[in-house]
Each structure stands twice: as structure tokens, then as C-alpha cells.
């Protein structure tokens, strides 16, 4: 509980005034022995216990009435979730704002989102209670503390608007910890505004242990989690998985692969219009969605032969989250999809070349170059989209060149050497080869089929990863993300987290003595060609890029091509969808699609992350108009009035006292 007029709490000692008056009143009378009163005193002594209790109750009611009056005029604020700690405003208030795409889920009647609701309520609360407090904002895109002049700025500041990004709550907590330590912020309240999406909180991150231990060593830091975990109702999200410009029988056309995810009521099918725009030309397609996902594969759109590059969008009608209703795409002539294979194994190299150059699309050109490890310095870095490295991990200049290759948005696939050494690259190293202890081969028992190299096909079919037989694999040591794992937890395929590009480690080889990758074929072909496509996309003059902070350095040079982004501040362009041109590069910026399937953490997952910290969770929802903290002075006025009424009732003489008084009245004596 806090107060709008905390200075009036200095009047609280006045509550002792009835006790002081009572003690002084007792000293006013002098006791004089009188024999005639002996019998009356004996009679009164029998009821002295009840009389004393009654006097104490009267005294307590008088104290309570004064306390109620003082608290009422101090204008208290309270909410059942904010807590009841008297102590005034803290020295510093830090706000950690989750600006991820899932926070844009909104109430269709009011248009307010989770993010805007949290900001409005927090601005109102802090406007009442934070006089004299320093307010610091840490938002999820830039991860930089920003000191604010007033809490009211939260509602309209550009740095608090919605984005299509994902958040990293553990990184935001780390920034808050460093700011508190560096600035000696004193008594600090940390407000975390989030929907508890698991992909944003990343409970598996190793950063949480250090953050939790750092805050445990601080005194006077309290956490308030303002959470919005209600799932979206009636929400649809659209994604363009592929776009290709091709010529067929002398005509030019675009081929789009479109996917729609559905989180609405799945019990019935729904028909909705899908709007497709290509260079300003609009067309509508009606689609019927009956499951949680709908795929429109190979949708063709005729275009002018002279249109060698351009952009467009696919849009859904407005629903619960406007962030995932539009997906932008760009197109241009496809570059040659070049793969470079570094290996000293001729048989393995031939298999790679055969798979990498096999194409089911005559409009795409593929090439594959094979280099021995001694010629690795001849890699054509400017034109290679994918590099397959089958040798011990490099160090020195070659390692730096591979890191630059990935930073440019391209792809590297590492395969285990025959004799692994201790060299580490991208935080990962090969360790030991493993063979089965029985005649049964290893099989992958878990793999990710929602995204990545092993994702389902565009028709929704899963790859037969579980049918692969592995006879030997090499273990990995590093912070990689498992895309496919064996029963014991060892990885078959991993991806290292990077800001751009892709780094993959495949734990076995395609030779028949190691696995059935080459003989089964399907998984190997799809996996390799997805890696090739990802790497080649960074070589095209038309690229599709995911929003994020790593783009911010060049945002001022972008020329926006769609109206929605033209009105946006250049500093905010890297965080929301749009189409831009930067010199010869045409690129579409789209949301992080991880937000489409964001699911809130449960209490059992949240507790270990914040266990040992002083925190309270405040569960709110969009459309709830109640304040985080409201004035409750009326409650104390009622307490005061109740105390006065009870005090008056206790002061009414009992019947026994009335009858005793009548016995000694003058009229009784005359009788």
C-alpha cells in the first residue's frame, strides 16, 4: 500500500491521544476511605472484570477512529496484487518491456493490445505513486537503459511501440542487473511487462543462473511481473515460405508457397479471402481452412516479362493480432546455387556433388566445387552460398573467414572428421566417435519438424527422420540447439545460434558404413537443399530478412517502398515488417515467425527462473479496465465511522448500572 499524501502519516502518533487522556483522567481523583461504601465496593468488585474489558474496548474504538481518519486523508492506494508494503515510492523504477510480436494480440472491440494495455496501466500507476523516483525503460529490441522524465511518456514514445521481433527476457534482466550495480540505484522496483511466451523467456538459457545469483546478492530490489497470458482467440497468421520468378513456355510468372497458421476454433472449417499484391496490382483468392494449418503450394501469378525484380505482399483480414496478418516478399533472378565441399574423402565428395547438383526445378542452376583441405584457402567466398566442411575444425584465418561467411547470411555445414582434435569453432567442438553396443543401429527418436532443415514439407508431410539408421556418430560439445537427437540425448543434427546465417553440425557421414543417409536419400536431399537455398538467399539481389537489432546500423540508408513503413521513424524500421531498397539490394523485412506459435510458460517453469527473488506476479488481461492500484480512502472512512458507532454503543450504561444509580437518587431517599 502506498499513499498520495504520505506526509500526513506523521500524524499517526495522534492515535495514542485517547490513551494519554485516559491515563491523565485516572490521576484526577484521590481515593478517600469511607466505611459506608464498603458494601457497595464489594458489589461492584464482582462485575469489575467485564467493566474493565468494556473500558478497553471503548479505548480501542477511539484509537481506531483516529487511525482511520489519518489513513483516509493520506489517500492510500492499493491493489490485492501490488502488495501492502508501506514505505513510499522507491528510489528507482525499472520497466522491462516485451515488444515481441505476440504482445500485439488485441481486444477487437477496443483496439488495445497486451503491450498498450500494460503501458497505459503502468503509466497511470507510476503517475500516482512514483513522485521523486527515477524511471528507467529497458525495451526488448535495443536492450539499452533509457532514463525517462515522466511515466506518462510510456504511452506515446516510439521506443515502446509494437514490433514483429522476438524478445530475450534473460538478456533484459542482465541489462537491468548491470544498470543497478553500476548506478547504485538504491531501493528499486523492477516491472516486467510480458506475455510469458516461452520462446521469449528461453527458460533453457544458461544466462538465468547468473542473473538470479546477481539479484540475490542485492538488497532492496523487488520484481513485479505484469503478465498477459490469455491465448489469442480467432487469430490467423500468414507466411510466404517460397517465392520464385520463372519462365515457362515463353511466359513469366511468380510461384508462391503460402502457409496460414490457425489458432482459432478448429471444430469447423472457415472460408476467408487472401489478398495478394504484386507491384501494386491486387488480386483475391478464397481459401478454406479446416485444420490448424493451411498450405497453398505453387500458386502462380502471371507477370510482365519486363518485370525482372519486384515486391509484393500476402494479407489476411484483421483479427486478434495484426502483426501476423501481412507477409512481404521480393523476387529477382535467382543466382547460381553454389556449394563448396572441403574434404579429403573422394567417395564422400562424389556423393555430396551428386546430391547438391540434383534439381527438380529446371529454372534453378546448381554447382558444386570440391576442394581438398590443403586447398581450403581457394574457397570462392564471394559466390559460395553453402560450405560443407568435412575435416578437423579450422583455426586462424580460415576460421575467421568462415565466421564472416556466416555473418553475411550464408550457411556452413560441418561433418565429423575421422580423428577429431580439440579445435573449437562457433563455441562447438567434436569429441569422440560412438558405436552401438549391440547389433541394433542408432535411430533418431526426437527431431524438430516445425522449422529448420528437418521441417515438414510444404504439403504438411513429415520427413522420415526416424527411419534413418546410424552405425557411427561423433559426439559434440557446445551450446548448440538440437534439431535431431538419439535416445540417449546425443545430437544427430544441431544448429548453433547466430544473428545471421546458419551453422549446422551433422554428427554422422553419408557413407554406408556410417549411416543410411545416402541410401534412404529423402532426408539427406531435403536437408542439403534447404541449406543450399538458405545460403543462396544471401547472394540474391532480392532477399527476405527477419526483423532484428542487427539491422539497425544501416536503417537510415534504407528507402521504404510500401506506405506503411514510409511513415515510420528510421530508427524503428528494423523492428517491423516492410519492403526497402538499399542501393542494389531489394529486401523484404518480416516478423519473427516464432511468435506465431508462442505459448506462455506455466508456473512450474517460471518458478525456477525467479526462485529466491522477491517477486509478485500480476495477471492482467486486455479489456480489463480496472487499475493496478486504486484509492481506498473510503474504506478507512468506513473504519472510522464503525469505530465511532461501536464506541458510542459501548458508552451506553447497562441496566444494572441504571438500577444502581436509581437506588441512591434523591427521590429514592425520600421514599
Provide structural commentary.
This protein is of the alpha/beta class and 671 residues long. It has 4 domains: 2-78 and 633-660, no CATH class; 92-231 and 600-627, 3-Layer(aba) Sandwich (Rossmann fold); 236-333 and 540-597, Immunoglobulin-like; 337-535, Class I glutamine amidotransferase (GATase) domain (Rossmann fold, 3-Layer(aba) Sandwich). The chain has 16 helices and 30 strands. Strands 16-15-17-18-24-23-22-20 form an 8-stranded mixed sheet, with helices on both faces. Strand 15, helix 8 and strand 16 form a beta-alpha-beta unit. Helix 5 (169-183) runs parallel beside helix 7 (207-216). The longest helix has 26 residues, at 48-73. Mean pLDDT is 86; it is low at 80-87 and 663-671.
- Remind me, CATH topology of the largest domain? Rossmann fold
By CATH, the superfamily of the largest domain comes out as: Class I glutamine amidotransferase (GATase) domain
Strand content: 25-35%
Radius of gyration: 36 Å
Spatial separation of the terminal alpha carbons: 64 Å
Outline: elongated
CATH architecture of the largest domain: 3-Layer(aba) Sandwich
Tally the structural domains. 4
Task: Give me the number of helical elements.
Answer: 16
| Helical coverage, percent range | 25-40%
- Biggest sheet: strands, sense, closure? 8 strands, mixed
Sequence stretches where pLDDT stays below 50 over 5 or more residues: 80-87, 663-671
Number of strands: 30
Overall pLDDT = 86
